[in-house]
Each structure stands twice: as structure tokens, then as C-alpha cells.
Amino acid sequence: MNLDVQQFKPEELHVKTVDNEFVVIEGKHEEKEDEHGSIYRHFVRRYRLPKNSKADAIQCHLSSDGVLQIQIAREVKELGENERHVPIAHSGEPAIALTQRKTEALGSGDVKVQTQ
Q1: Residue 99 has what pLDDT?
Q2: Which of 35, 49, 69, 91 is deepest in the core (most CB within 10 A)?
């Protein structure tokens, strides 16, 4: 996620996790004078972490133009005993051409079944 925090200095920003369930971003600076008078800014954003995220692997980056980027790593679920990865073959052909080629390969005496 990306947050525009250009109004805040790096030391005015804080990111924390709560109960391994939420990430909380807070920005706060005391009253400052500007051309219109004084201003006080404070924000708090709270996001629920996805179920398969690793709260201890969150990374934050602050860009030079004031964008705070938060990256959350996801846990890789190990395959169970009765599971396996099924590889996906890339044909390089459109689906219609592939279906026609398979139908023609059956020949005239075979039963033709087409599903969509």
C-alpha cells in the first residue's frame, strides 16, 4: 500500500503491528506556522493484515517525494501430503485453434466431445 505523507518529516511517522492482525500507520506533528496561520496535523490509518501475511516481515520505504510504501510478505503454504503442484503448459495458440486441432485429430469414427 502507498500513502502520501509529504506533509510529515520521517521522524513524525510511525508504523507498528498490533496483535499480528493489524498494521497501524500514524503521522503527527505539533502546531506549525505557515502563511495562513498555524496548523496541527495528525492521522492514524489501521489496516487488517491478510490471513496469510507475515506481520514480522513488513517493510516500509519512504520516497524522497513523501510516499510511504508498505510491503507485507505472505506466508507460503506448504503442500499437504495429498497435494501436488500441477504444471501449466503454454500452447502458444488461441483456444479456438487448439480445440479445432484436437477435434480433427479424433478422426471421423471417434466420438467427439467438446466442452466450454
Answers
A1: 62
A2: 49
Q: What is the mean pLDDT of residues 55-66?
A: 85
Contact indicator for 69, 60 with CB cutoff of 8 Å = yes
Residue 14 is inside which H or E element, if any? strand 13-18
CATH architecture of 2-71: Sandwich (2.60)
- In 3D space, the residue among 90, 116, 92 whose CA is nearest the CA of residue 103 turns out to be 116
**pTM of the full predicted structure?**
0.59
Q: Is 11 helix (H, G, I), strand (E, B) or coil?
A: helix
Question: Facing residues of 69 across strands?
Answer: 2, 61
Spatial separation of the C-alpha atoms in residues 74 and 57, rounded to whole Å:
9
The single residue listed with the C-alpha cell 479456438 is 96
Neighbours of 5 (CB within 10 A): 20
Q: What is the pLDDT of residues 36-53, one digit of tens each?
A: 888 889 999 999 988 888
Enclosing H/E stretch for 3: strand 2-4
What number of residues does the chain have?
116
Instruction: Find the farthest-apart pair of alpha carbons in the chain and give their distance in angstroms, rounded.
Output: 88
